């Protein structure tokens, strides 16, 4: 199977997709931006051993590779439009490609985003996706809009992906069914695209939680030049994580990584609107803290006592 | 040096670039498409040993990684606007990153294209760039517009990059100065962006020559459902390649790869306009054949005799 056969067999689909003038098959794709909309762009690269384990099923990997990119569009409240895929593969393995493309396109179809171009080459497994989406001019959610007094929210639940990773690392063990559940959280994250769009005009800032809540909320605090306090024991988590020892539970929730939830802020006057956005998008949302003028992040326990913390966000160039 | 320090130190530059509402630093970049323009997108991934050798200087690699992507915009006649960079690196090497980013930004500045987002991670060296450009609605040059009777043209000269590769492979040797010249062709290709834009409304089809002339002209023939004949000895080449044995010269020119020239077609009535586009863009262009209704590609020698050919275009999944 050669490069062009591979592309044709696994990645070329029907034309005639919304806004796509020309998809795969030329030097460039040709897209028609919707008048009045701004264009949002993000890129994520996935490397074996850093972003996924060799044990992941190809179908789940195809899902995850797109999901982590859609999560960036979600954080900005964008409507997904198109993506490109650059793929380095050790070899052209039809079985692997069948699974990978199945998982990829299932998620793409669920979000109405079209694969419009790409590149395939031989090399150590590497998946690089660039997503493009749209939002009305000036309406994109940014990290820079949080204001003192705003509430801090997070969607879904945190920490299961990290818990699964700890099982793979051998540092803890879980019963089979519980492991399957947290493994699915790690391998099949659901990007909060509908919530992000529903929060346009409601949230004052947003980011996706990919490197851990502390790190990603930290980006909001830095870009907004504010601080925050969080009520640590309000962090939403699954029943599986809730049953773990407190220290592990907090570590996973605060600094777990790979959550792909949204952390966002909104003025107290928007509480009903936030609730409405959560219902409209069928996404659980919980208020976990507030933005303050004083720089830094303060973690409070259930009694309102400040916790000292050494949690650090995931960094690809630190061990 | 952590991931965010690395990005800040080597890849974040001033904001306020044309059309860029928000660059690096949020979950997505925010871009403002020009009203009435279509958006052109292309992705290329570069892997060590496939697209470049470990001997390449980082500055040249930074140049080449963007150049091969700009070449796709050139082939469509697009005006470059923005790009994203996803980079997997074995380690955060400041010296390497200094050279790489210098070469990358020198070429970006020369073409007025802005780095708006990206991703860095640890892993086997891999460079994945997505470029975005604009062209007036319906004006992009495509592979599908060639018509019987059209002339076939190619820009610049072909085959030097392949000749350099043969030196690295040890199959031929060249005097130092000649090697330096063909090595520069391989490592520092100049994308024909100005020519591509000048050919809007003039050329009937275009493609960039990245996998070898036969392969890339073959894409035009396939997408346009036509054939062509080429006068092989008209192929433009450097004095270094011209001095090589005929068989090697033809192999390099017809199936060399890594040329990043444009192959394009235009009606005979456009000959003066093609010449004008060449002059306007200060890019040599030569007519090398014609499009015919009969499928297939016929190679003719200087006496008009048909050459049998076994040249094959580069394929990343064939040896």
Task: Summarize the SSE layout with pairings.
The structure is a homodimer of 319-residue chains.
Chain A: H1 3-10, E1 20-22, E2 29-31, E3 37-47, H2 58-75, E4 79-89, H3 94-111, E5 114-122, E6 126-136, E7 151-155, H4 160-169, H5 176-187, H6 193-198, E8 205-209, H7 213-224, E9 227-231, H8 239-242, H9 246-255, E10 261-266, H10 271-280, E11 285-292, E12 296-300, E13 306-307
Helix pairs in contact in A: 2-3, 4-5
Binding site for Mg(2+) 1 (chains A, B): 43-44, 119
Function (chains A, B): Catalyzes the ATP-dependent phosphorylation of thiamine-monophosphate (TMP) to form thiamine-pyrophosphate (TPP), the active form of vitamin B1.
InterPro entries (chains A, B): PurM-like_C_dom, PurM-like_C_sf, PurM-like_N, PurM-like_N_sf, ThiL-like
Describe this structure as you would to a colleague.
The structure is a homodimer of 319-residue chains. Chain A folds into two domains: 3-136, 60s Ribosomal Protein L30, Chain: A (2-Layer Sandwich), CATH 3.30.1330; 143-307, PurM-like C-terminal domain (Phosphoribosyl-aminoimidazole Synthetase, Chain A, domain 2). With 319 residues, chain A is of the alpha+beta class. In chain A, α3 links the parallel β4 (79-89) and β5 (114-122). Chain A has a seven-stranded mixed sheet with strand order 8-10-7-11-9-12-13, sandwiched between helices. Chain A has helices at 3-10, 58-75, 94-111, 160-169, 176-187, 193-198, 213-224, 239-242, 246-255, 271-280; strands at 20-22, 29-31, 37-47, 79-89, 114-122, 126-136, 151-155, 205-209, 227-231, 261-266, 285-292, 296-300, 306-307. Chain A has ten helices and 13 strands. At the A-B interface, α1, β2, β3, α2 and β4 of A face α1, β2, β3, α2 and β4 of B. β3 of chain A pairs antiparallel with β2 of chain B. Chains A, B: It catalyses: thiamine phosphate + ATP = thiamine diphosphate + ADP. Chains A, B: Belongs to the thiamine-monophosphate kinase family.
């Amino acid at each position: 199977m050669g490069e062009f056969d591979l592309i044709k067999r696994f990645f070329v689909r029907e034309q005639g997709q919304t806004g796509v003038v020309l998809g795969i098959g030329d030097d460039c794709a040709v897209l028609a931006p919707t008048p009045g909309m701004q264009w949002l762009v993000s890129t994520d690269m996935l490397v074996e051993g850093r972003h996924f384990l060799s044990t992941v099923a190809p179908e789940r990997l195809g899902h995850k590779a797109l999901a982590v990119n859609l999560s960036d569009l979600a954080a900005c409240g964008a409507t997904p439009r198109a993506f490109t895929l650059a793929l380095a593969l050790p070899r052209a393995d039809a079985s692997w490609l069948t699974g990978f493309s199945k998982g990829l396109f299932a998620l793409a179809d669920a979000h109405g985003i079209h694969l419009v171009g790409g590149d395939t080459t031989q090399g150590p497994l590497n998946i690089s996706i660039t997503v493009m989406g749209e939002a009305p001019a000036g309406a994109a959610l940014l990290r820079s809009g949080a204001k003192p007094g705003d509430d801090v929210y997070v969607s879904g639940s945190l920490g299961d992906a990290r818990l699964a990773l700890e099982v793979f690392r051998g540092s803890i063990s879980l019963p089979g069914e519980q492991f399957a559940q947290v493994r699915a959280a790690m391998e099949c994250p659901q990007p909060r695209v509908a919530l992000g769009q529903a929060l346009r005009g409601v949230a004052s800032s947003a980011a996706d939680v990919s490197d851990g809540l502390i790190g990603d909320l930290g980006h909001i605090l830095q870009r907004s030049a504010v601080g925050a306090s969080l009520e640590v024991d309000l962090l939403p988590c699954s029943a599986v994580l809730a049953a773990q020892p407190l220290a592990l539970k907090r570590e996973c929730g605060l600094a777990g990584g790979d959550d792909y939830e949204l952390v966002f802020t909104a003025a107290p006057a928007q509480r009903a609107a936030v609730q409405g956005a959560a219902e409209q998008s069928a996404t659980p949302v919980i208020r976990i803290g507030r933005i303050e003028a004083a720089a830094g992040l303060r973690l409070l326990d259930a009694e309102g006592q400040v916790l000292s913390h050494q949690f650090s966000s995931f960094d690809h160039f630190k061990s």
